[in-house]
């Protein structure tokens, strides 16, 4: 290139000037093109940096929003924790008060337990007394059962005897009634007149009245025996019910004072003379009744 410039410069100065100006322009164009390319490259790089910064800004905004949300959540949690702390403090105070009340109640319950122990001891003694009374009632019940059996036997014999007596007396009454209904025989007197026998008419009503009175006595005696038998059955049933109550009392459930009073009243009623039957042979002592039980029943009926 230098050689070409030298040759051209040596041959024609004008051409050299033209060539020199042309080369300067070419160099200027090249520099301009290079500058423009550099500017474009710088602009591209600047745009790329702007885009990168915008993306970074977006990321920072997202991070900021996320951190703001987290901060809000943490503030809410902090508020809730403060509320929980106040609630726990109140609960702690309440538990302390409850603990104090429980200690006081424990002391009261300890006193009540001591009282209950004493009460249980007294109830145990009462239960033992009730068991003793139950044994006594069992003995009395066996005596009442024995009395009832004897009274039933006596009543059956008396009923048979009464039925036989009533049958005989009824037949006799029917016979006498028939005699009274028949026309009485009249005796002939003077002048061919008949006269009635006054002794015959007076004897028949007298015998009828005596039989009627005897029948009423038998009925009254039978009624007394039935009443005595009914009383004995009632007493026996009461004794059985009382024995059942005492069996229940043998369990852990203690007997109440009302039940104890009922037992005492029942025992007194059983032993009272006015509640005993009127059959004299059945109201003897148990030992004498057991001795009499060895005798034949026919003899008992005869004694009755």
Automatic annotation (TrEMBL):
UniProt entry tagged with the keyword Protease: no
Chain residue ranges for the region called Disordered: 273-304
Coiled-coil ranges from the UniProt annotation: 43-147, 208-249
GO molecular function: protein serine/threonine kinase activity
InterPro entries found in the cross-reference section: Rho-assoc_Ser/Thr_Kinase (IPR050839)
Catalyzed reaction equations: L-seryl-[protein] + ATP = O-phospho-L-seryl-[protein] + ADP + H(+); L-threonyl-[protein] + ATP = O-phospho-L-threonyl-[protein] + ADP + H(+)
Keywords: Coiled coil, Kinase, Phosphoprotein, Serine/threonine-protein kinase, Transferase
Protein's name in the database: Uncharacterized protein
Species assigned in the record: Aquarana catesbeiana
Upper taxonomic lineage: Eukaryota, Metazoa, Chordata, Craniata, Vertebrata
């Amino acid at each position: 290139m230098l050689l070409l410039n030298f040759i051209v410069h040596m041959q024609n100065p004008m051409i050299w000037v033209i060539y020199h100006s042309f080369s300067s322009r070419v160099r200027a164009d090249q520099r301009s093109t290079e500058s423009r390319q550099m500017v474009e490259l710088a602009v591209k790089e600047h745009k790329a940096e702007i885009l990168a910064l915008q993306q970074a800004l977006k990321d920072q905004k997202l991070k900021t929003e996320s951190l703001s949300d987290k901060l809000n959540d943490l503030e809410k949690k902090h508020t809730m924790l403060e509320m929980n702390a106040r609630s726990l403090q109140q609960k702690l105070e309440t538990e302390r008060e409850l603990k104090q009340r429980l200690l006081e109640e424990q002391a009261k319950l300890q006193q009540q337990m001591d009282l209950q122990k004493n009460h249980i001891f007294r109830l145990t003694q009462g239960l033992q007394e009730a068991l003793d009374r139950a044994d006594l009632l069992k003995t009395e019940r066996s005596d009442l059962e024995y009395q009832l059996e004897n009274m039933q036997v006596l009543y059956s014999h008396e009923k048979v005897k009464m039925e036989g007596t009533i049958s005989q007396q009824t037949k006799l009454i029917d016979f006498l009634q028939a005699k009274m209904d028949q026309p009485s025989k009249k005796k002939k007197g003077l002048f061919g007149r008949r006269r009635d026998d006054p002794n015959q008419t007076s004897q028949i009503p007298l015998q009828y009245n005596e039989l009627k009175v005897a029948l009423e006595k038998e009925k009254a005696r039978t009624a007394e025996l039935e009443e005595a038998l009914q009383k004995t059955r009632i007493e026996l049933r009461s004794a059985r019910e009382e024995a059942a109550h005492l069996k229940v009392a043998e369990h852990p459930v203690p007997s109440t004072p009302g039940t104890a009073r009922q037992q005492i009243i029942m025992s007194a009623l059983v032993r009272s003379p006015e509640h005993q039957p009127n059959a004299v042979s059945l109201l003897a002592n148990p030992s004498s009744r057991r001795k009499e039980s060895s005798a034949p029943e026919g003899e008992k009926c005869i004694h009755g």
